[in-house]
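Sequence and structure are kept together here, with a separate record for every protein. An example record follows, reproduced without changes.
>
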Amino acid sequence: MTKAEREALLMEKLAEKKAFDDAFRSGGADDCDDENDGCGAKYIAGVDEVGRGPLAGPVVAACVVLPEDFDVPGVDDSKKLSEKKREALYDEIMSRALAVGIGRADNLVIDEINILQATKEAMKEAVAAADQMLRQRIGADQGSDGSAAIGHILFDAMTIEEIKIPQTSIIKGDAKSLSIGAASIVAKVTRDREMAEYHKIYPDYGFESNKGYGTKAHYDGIRRCGITPIHRKSFLKNIL
């Protein structure tokens, strides 16, 4: 494939993902069959997380509200992108998004309430932070009923009933929705950078490269040096 062909393909995929999100803004999405479900909202947020599987470190969620004219090609499921590409896209997203919120749940929270519930807590934190940033950006006050500036949330295969904002759960959403793909990248880069910093503190586990996942180097480090304060004990019951 030539460079021109690759660029054309990226622009085609960008158009498809923009159209997917725009359908929720216009009310034309397949899931928009209820007048009160938030479809037709001006501000659409994408939410995704990273770090549910590692043995160490936090789970990190991101909530991203993109402008309708966001035109940066290449946004996709973060796992499909090289580190260099993720970093470049992260900078574009952070500079051009209307709002970005980050949420975290550390290993202690994960051990206490389980990874699924910890993921939901991180997502709720991310949505709240993004909504606050969006309000500041557009100069909107929170309604007396607690209503949000974000009109509709697109989740990657998740539903959080405690969030009182209309929402849609999309299977493989990070590959279909521009907003969820952007959130996937922001969450991934944020967590990867944190794990690289943890590597400086705990250099015996390969965190800089494995990001806390259960690689051979990671397990060897545990056997050799024991666990660190950022390890998830509930994930290590078979070897502790």
Observations:
- Strands lie at 44-50, 59-65, 99-105, 152-156, 167-170.
- Helices lie at 3-26, 83-96, 107-113, 115-138, 173-176, 178-201, 207-210, 216-225.
- The longest strand covers residues 44-50.
- The chain is about 45% helix and 10% strand.
